[in-house]
Structure formats: C-alpha cells, structure tokens
Write a structure and sequence with these properties.
Length: 405
C-alpha cells in the first residue's frame, strides 16, 4: 500500500467511529490549546517586562550613595550622602565610555493650576536626562543648561499631570504652582506608561535640579545619578570607569567597600526576563501534562480498535498485506488523530489567549514558534503512543486473526 492508500483507509476507519475519534482527539485538543494559551500568557508577560525596561532608556546606569558603615551599622542603597555635584562633573569629563550623565533629586509636591490640584513627584535633573531616558517632548520644549545655571522656574510635565490639571486645555506657557512657587510649563513629555514596579512614569514633573534644590527643597539630602554608556557593549567599561573614578575621588582604600552602588540596565533586564522565562516554562510544563493524558487516550482507543478489527487484520494479511502495511495503517490512524487534534488545539489556544487578553487584561503573545512546536509535539505524541498498538496489530498471526470472533 502506498501513502495515499494508507491515508484513505485511515480516514475511513476514523469516520466510521466519528464520536469515538472526536473524544479521543479531545485530550490532544485541550493539551495543545492549554500549552499555546499558557505560553502566550508567559511570553506576553515577558514582552511587557522588556517593553517596560526599554521605556527606562537604553544603556542606562544608576548610581546611588550607599554601603557606608559606621560603628558596625551599614546603611542601605540611597541612604548615604557620598555623591556630589563635583562627582557628576568628573564623570562627565573623565569617563569616555559615558555618553550622558545627570543628577537626580526627588521631592513629593502638590501642584496647583487654577482650581485643580494634584499630588505628584518633582524630579530635578539636567537636559542630559532626556537623552539618557530617551524621553521625547510631546509639545513645547525641554529646558536647557542655561536654565540649570540660573535655577529657572520652568518645568516639563508628564501626561498624567497634564490630564489631571489641564484636561483638554493647552498646558504650554501655563503657570502652575509648586509649594506656592509659580513655575512656567515649557513642555510636555510623551507617555511612557508604567514601569516594572507598576508606578506611573507619566505622573512626574521635571525641572532643573538647581531649581528643585534651591527653591523647593532648600537643601539636597540625597543625590543619585543616572548615566548612559556610549553603546550597550560599553556598559561594563562605563561602569568600571565610574567605579574607579569615584573610589579615587572619595579616597577609599583598596580594602574599603564602595560608598556607592552602580546598577546597570542589563542586570535589571536579565533578572526580570529570567523570572518571566521561568514562569513561561512552568506554565507550559503544567499544560503539557494534558498532552500526555491525550496520548494515553490515543493508545487506549487504538488498542481497543486492534481488538475490534482483529478479523479485518487477518483478512488483509490473507490477501497479501504485509506486516509493514498493517503497521503503517494503524500508526497513520494515530498520527491523523493527533495532528487533527493539534490543529484544532491551535485554534483553541489562539482563541483562548485572545480571550484572556481581552477579559482578564493580561498581555499575551502567541508566537509562531509555539504553534510550530505544538504541531510537531502532537505528531510525536501520535507516533509514540500509536506505535505499540500498531505493532501489536502488525504482529497478529493471520490464522489466529481469521479464527477470532
């Protein structure tokens, strides 16, 4: 028998028992659908995390004052006061692997415009910050170095602040008040959405750090610094240059711990994506158990089919069917059921992942590779679990098969 004939006979046998064939395929359908849907949820979460990391800017390095130890008591990240303006200037001038550098100071503020008010975060930075974060201006313009030197009362506001204070009005050149001090809005930021911690990145007001320090805070308690490397490949070099420079400037002995901490975006990204990859693998592994159950169901039904069709097998062998023909026929039936179940499972998985995204609000991403892998896996299930019943059918003695009632 050729392949076409084997396929025809296999389909005929399955069609004769439509309901049984459908119920047998159900395990594969549910298994493949569950795998695709769960992997889509995991990959969607991973893509969401990667997008949030990218929104922080590329090649970013964060420097915090930290690791000071006094009297046996160690302070944590961001609690020290070891970083200064001179450190930032030195990094800008003496670290060739660093493209941009900006101080960062924060203060919670209540911003007022007309009869509207909103509690938000004011962040003092330099113009380099816009390049580091790759944060583009939506309307208006950003402040410049002259504004930093003059501690100008100008600001750039995020989209959340725009919505809360101005609604449909144009905020450019409007005057808002921060702690009863008037500030001119010279620009608005393009939206970035939430970060990895679920915080709204658009709920922010950016202003020159000198303005925030002198006019609002009165003093600078905690400096932190953000910088960017010239390229992604230069991140380790930039981190090493800043580490050596700051240790030298802070006069730390070789045995002294750093009084600062430098973290790079790659470390943050690797840790976050590794977590989502583990979750994706776990979800896919749990869902694939149902594929195993579906394969066992195929084996069970094929064994029943061999028993029911013992006399048919004997007749086929008596009129010249070879052992390979019988093996191929029953194996093909198992493969056809698993592959058909696989395709129906793909439709179920894609539909299910879309429904999860729509109604549960979870990000999902159905990749071509997961669909392709599901088809291959369902075929493998058919071959693996169909081989034993097919081999049993092919090994039947034709005389005993003809005498079987």
């Amino acid at each position: 028998m050729n392949l076409v004939e084997i396929l025809r006979v296999s389909f005929d046998a399955l069609i004769k028992n439509k309901m049984r064939s459908l119920l047998t395929m159900l395990g594969i359908i549910i298994g493949v659908g569950a795998v695709i849907a769960m992997v889509a949820v995991g990959q969607g979460a991973q893509a969401s995390v990667e997008a949030q990391i990218s929104s922080l800017g590329m090649n970013v390095l964060l420097i915090f004052p930290t690791s000071t130890t006094r009297g046996g008591v160690a302070s944590g990240a961001g609690t020290g006061t070891s970083l200064t303006e001179d450190d930032i200037t030195a990094i800008r001038d003496q670290c060739p692997a660093v493209a941009h550098v900006s101080p960062m100071i924060r203060s919670g503020v209540q911003v007022v415009y007309g009869d509207q008010n909103w509690g938000t975060s004011a962040q003092g930075v330099t113009p380099d910050y816009f390049d580091i974060r790759e944060w583009q201006i939506d309307k208006g313009d950003e402040f410049g170095d002259q504004d930093v030197r003059a501690a100008s009362k100008v600001c750039v506001i995020g989209q959340t602040v725009v919505q809360q204070l101005f609604d449909s009005q144009n905020p450019i050149n409007a005057t808002i008040r921060l702690r009863n001090i008037p500030f001119k809005v010279i620009g608005t930021l393009k939206p970035k959405g939430q970060n990895m911690m679920g915080q709204d990145q658009d709920d922010i007001i950016l202003l020159p750090y000198t303005t925030l320090a002198k006019r609002i805070m009165g003093t600078i308690r905690n400096w932190s610094v953000t910088a960017s490397a010239t390229t992604k490949e230069m991140i380790p070099e930039a981190q090493n240059e800043m580490t050596q420079l700051l240790r030298s400037r802070h006069k730390l002995a070789p045995t002294d711990d750093n009084d600062f901490t430098i973290r790079n975006q790659t470390e943050i990204a690797d840790a976050s994506t590794q977590t989502t990859k583990i979750m994706t693998t776990l979800l896919g592994s749990i869902a694939s158990v149902s594929l195993l159950v579906g394969g066992i169901g195929i084996m069970n039904i094929m064994l029943v089919s061999v028993t029911e069709r013992t006399r048919e097998i004997g007749i086929r062998k008596a009129i010249g069917a070879r052992k390979g023909d019988i093996l191929g026929q029953f194996l093909m039936e198992a493969i056809v059921m698993s592959v058909l179940g696989g395709f129906l499972g793909i439709a179920l998985g894609v539909t299910g992942s879309s429904l999860i995204s729509r109604f549960a609000g979870w990000p999902t991403y159905t990749s071509t590779s997961s669909i392709f892998a599901s088809v291959i896996f369902s075929m493998a299930v058919g071959v693996f679990f169909g081989y034993y019943p097919a081999r049993k059918a092919a090994s039947l003695n034709p005389i005993e098969a003809l005498r079987y009632e």
